[in-house]
Amino acid sequence: MKKTSDILSSLPPTLTGYEKTKLEQKFASRADSTVEAVEQYIISEHLNPGDPLPTEAELCKLLGVSRSSVREAMRQLQALDIVATKQGKGAFVSNMSLSPLVNTLVLRSSMGNGSLGTLDEVVAMRKYLDIGVGHELVEKRDQTDPEKIEELQDLVKQMISKSATGHSYIQEDIAFHRGLISILQNQLLDEMMSAMWLIHMAVVPSLPADPAGLILTAKAHGAMLKAVEDGDIHAYYCAVEDHYEPLKARMNAAQ
Description:
- The protein has 12 helices and 2 strands.
- By secondary structure, it is mainly alpha-helical.
- The N and C termini lie far apart (53 Å).
- This is FadR family transcriptional regulator.
- Keywords: DNA-binding, Transcription, Transcription regulation.
- GO terms for molecular function: DNA binding; DNA-binding transcription factor activity.
């Protein structure tokens, strides 16, 4: 069975541009509607990541579409990390990670003049996430494993120590924020935070160095953690503002 792209590339040269466009739209429409149908099947059957999907032939019969439409739809769903295939075992529901979104945003952030604009949006998103989880972090402070708090305290000490000698602490920074978020036991939130960090790391190295800002940011992490421990939501919000202020200053200096 030919791929849709092969069919489109073999269209007769005598077709007008308008006729080719209409045929391309027809194929695209079939594939898109098949994508939606497969997604609806996953939802209606209450499938979970790792569950098997029907075979190509079964999907053709089930959805009333051609095999080429099913194959094109499955390719699109794989690109979106909704479907995964295993050699000799067929197709399965994937983990549906944020990888496609991350890859697109990392590419966008690396494209010339748009990089700082994308970083500005990512930093704003990270800040919104940090502020948004504040109340729940404070509410769950008494339920948090003391060892988790000790881990976060150690990370703060490492960041302050590194910043005092002018060294960056990106890995400790990531571990701190992910550790703080882990208190909420929200996998999607953790994935979103990780996605924002990947984009952040793609652009930040191009910003001017700021040794003093590193120290202020390291201390702000400690203030965020202490505010959570004390149950002081106002202090937490202030610490979040202090945390992002040096980075915003570096971004403004780079513009």
